[in-house]
Amino acid sequence: QVQLVESGGGLVQAGGSLRLSCAASGRTFSMYAMGWFRQAPGKEREFVGAISWGGGRTFYTKSVKGRFTISRDNAKNTVDLQMNSLKPDDTAVYYCASHGRAWYSGNDYATKAAYDYWGQGTQVTVSS
Fold first, then answer.
1. What b-and-e string marks burial along 5-16, b requiring 16 or more CB atoms within 10 Å of the CB?
2. CA distances in angstroms from 114 to 15, 50, 90, 99, 106, listed in the order given
3. Any bridge partners for residue 77, and if so which?
4. Is pLDDT above 90 for 59?
5. Mean pLDDT on 7-12
6. Is 89 helix (H, G, I), strand (E, B) or coil?
7. High-pLDDT (> 70) share of the chain, %
8. What is the predicted pLDDT for the residue at 107?
9. Stretch 13-35: mean pLDDT
């Protein structure tokens, strides 16, 4: 049984930083790309960024590019989301997700349906 558990959310002032972490278990972590998504109240869940299974490629939505960084440690089965220069618009529940295809080498990481396991989410609130 695959489990993804996020941590690190909280309340931060605009301009501040937070680091989210996602711990994975239940299948060979290093075989799967990992994604981060977020969902603000009243809005659809949206793609934030992703990292390839080997960690060599990262992808970000335009609104976070240059502010957020995704990294993974395949020895520890963790994927992190470092968020800098946070804005009130970044307020949301953040979810990590595991891609459904092992060794995926394509370029479509933004589609929610491509991910088969999700964490429970962690709240990030950015005050102005």
1. ebebbeebeeee
2. 32, 12, 23, 6, 11
3. none
4. yes
5. 97
6. helix
7. 100
8. 85
9. 97
